[in-house]
Specification:
Length: about 400
Amino acid sequence: MTKDSARRILIYSHDSFGLGHLRRCRTLAHALVEQNQNLSVLILSGSPIIGSFDFKARVDFVRIPGIIKLRNGEYTSLSLHIDTEQTLAMRASIIRHTAETFDPDILIVDKEPFGLRGEVEETLRFLKTKGTRLVLGLRDVLDDPALLVPEWKRKNVLPALQDLYDDIWVFGIEQLYNPLQEIALPADVKRKITYTGYLPRAVSVGAEPAILEELDAPYALITVGGGGDGEVLVDWVLRAYESGDPPPINALFVFGPFMPPETQNSFRDRISKLDMVRAVTFDNHMESLMSKASAVVAMGGYNTFCEVLSMDKRALIIPRTVPRLEQYIRATRAAELGLISVLIDDGVRSASTMTTALKHLSQQKKPSETVIPGLLDGLTNVNRLAQLRFQERDKAREKNTLSFRKADG
């Protein structure tokens, strides 16, 4: 294969917290290489556990130094005992050097238009001069518009959408939510927006988590994503199983890799006293656990929502409301459409309220019983869009070559 025939996509994900960005980017990368035999995809990620995931052939990653966001909104280095600004400078340098060397046809930036603290801006401007197609990939819901509008104004995002980015791909459907609805976008930016549909998930062949050997009866999967902020949900569901009137179905808890060890140990002590409950810290094949589950209880992050739709599972979503309203907005809109049921944290969190909600799950409609056109077309449409962009870049190169030859002749 010649260098000219090979395709390359670079995906940037800042990954300051949790698993959401990494898992979305990995899903995109795998789908793209499956449909394009001459394509290689490289993921730039700050996730501390990216090495725990397996990747398909022609997908690889570059791990940049980790940064985490503190409760006060400030950032700090995850592992290195150096100044935050030094860490950010290192990240920006690695990103720029990787982009120069990899020379992608397309750059997909996940969620943050300029990257974390602006670390991708220089790379965006460099790749623009090289003719790379620049794509901003957005999940279905970003945040409460009352917070998003001033945030994007402060970061001066609009000029980037106008002058740098060629496309804006929203990985959802407008019928459920428009993440940019309150932002005054000029017509030329609106024309760049494509709603792809949600990104479907599938069970990996040969991926059978060991915990499934211990479960010989139907179970509800209780998952809190990365787990860093999942303590409240786990405690609430556990109290229902500890009550005198427990839910009528076994439970499998997945704590998530970022739940503090001491918190996990406390939950494991409680679970050891319950016959109907099992737990694991983390499994990189969540799709397998979900596919075997009878129902799902979750906070409702983007990836979990995609899995619920893909596996067609009855789901109870208990969204967090801080620091962002993303999960709350997604859950309430999805419930209005009849895709899932939602339980809002009332602060009391009684065991009986949870037990009642879990009992109702068995009578709930499955997502597939609500027909929404294009709901899970995300990967098909992303692949179609990528192939169109490859063709456009080929034409531009041919035009430049012809112009050069005429000038030279």
